[in-house]
Amino acid sequence: MSGDRQKTFYLETFGCQMNVHDSEKVVGTLLQEGYRQVETVEQADLILYNTCSIRDKAEQKVFHRLADYKKLQAQGKKFGVLGCVAQQEGEKIFERAPHVSLVCGSASYRNLPQMLAQLESIQTDGAQAGEPAIFETASSRSPAFSPAGRGISPTTLPRTGSLIRITGLDDRQTDACFETEFTARTNPHRGYITIIEGCDKFCAYCVVPYTRGKERSRTSDSVLAEARQMADLGYTDIQLLGQNVNSYNDPTNGGRKKRSFAELLAAVGEVSGIKRVRFTTSHPRDFGRDIVEAIDAVPTLCDHVHLPVQSGSTRMLDAMQRLYTRQQYLERIAWIKAAKRDIAITTDVIVGFPGETESDFSETLSLLEEVGYDGVFSFKYSPRPNTPALSLHDAIPDQQKARRLEVLMAKQRELQIPRNRKYVGSIVEVMVEGQNPARGQWIGRTSQNKTLNFTAAAGKFPQTGSYVTVIVTASFPNSLVGEMLQDGGCTKTAPM
Ligand code: 5AD
Ligand code: SF4
Question: Which of 87, 88, 206 most suits a substitution to test ligand 2, by most atoms within 8 Å of the C-beta?
Answer without folding.
Answer: 206
